[in-house]
Amino acid sequence: MPFVNEYVSYEDAEKYDLDNLWNKYNYSMLKMPELLNHFDVHQHSWCVDKERGYWLFNCGFLLNEDSLSGFVEPSNEEAFILHVNGQNIVFILAHHGMEATDLYPIHFSYKLVSMSPSSLPNMSRESLLNILKDAINIFKYNGIRDLEENAKTLIEFNF
To answer: What pLDDT shows up at residue 116?
Structure first.
C-alpha cells in the first residue's frame, strides 16, 4: 500500500507522542493539543504507509533566532518526522518558493538542511531520502487538511 494522507487516530497520536513532537519543532504560540481545536477536524494529520508501518508527520516551520532584524522570526525551514522501522528520523528541509504555472499555482522546492540519524542499521541514507520524497509527494501542501491545494501543488527536491 502506498502512502496516503489521513487523520491520525487518537490512539496513534498518543502512542507516537505527536503533541510533543509538534511542540518541540513548531514555532506557533499556541501549542498542542490546544491547537487542534482550531482545525476543522480536531485530530493530527499525517501521511502513512500502513503496510510498511511508515509515517510522515509535518511539524511545521522552525524559528530563526539569527534573523537580520534581530528579532526571532519564522524561518523557511520545516521539520518533518519520518517514522521507519520503529525509529523517528528528523528532517529539516529549507522551503523555497518557485515560479507558479497555470497548472501548478503552488510550486516550491525543498533542500535538505539536516537529517538525524542519517541512516538506519538496515537502511541507507539514499533509501531514507527516497521514502521521504515519496511521502512528501503525497503529503504535498498540507496533507489531508487541504486536498484542493494539494492538487495544485508541484514540489521539487534539491537533494
So the answer is: 97
| Residue 96: strand pairing partners | 109
- Nearest-Å Rg of the Cα atoms of the chain is 16
Q: Distances in Å between the alpha carbon of 154 and those of 49, 84, 105, 106, 150?
A: 21, 25, 8, 6, 8
Query: Which residue intervals of 7-73 are DSSP H helices?
Result: 10-15, 18-25
Cell of 149: 491545494
Q: Which three cell numbers mark 58?
A: 509535518
Amino acid symbol at 44: H
Q: How does pLDDT run across 81-112, given as a tens digit for each residue?
A: 999 999 999 999 999 999 999 999 999 999 99
Residue 1's CB is within 10 A of a number of other CB atoms, namely 8
CA-closest candidate to residue 142, choices 69, 41, 73: 41
Would you state the cell numbers that stand for residue 25, as one nine-digit string?
Answer: 519543532
Total residues belonging to the chain: 159
End-to-end CA distance of the chain: 25
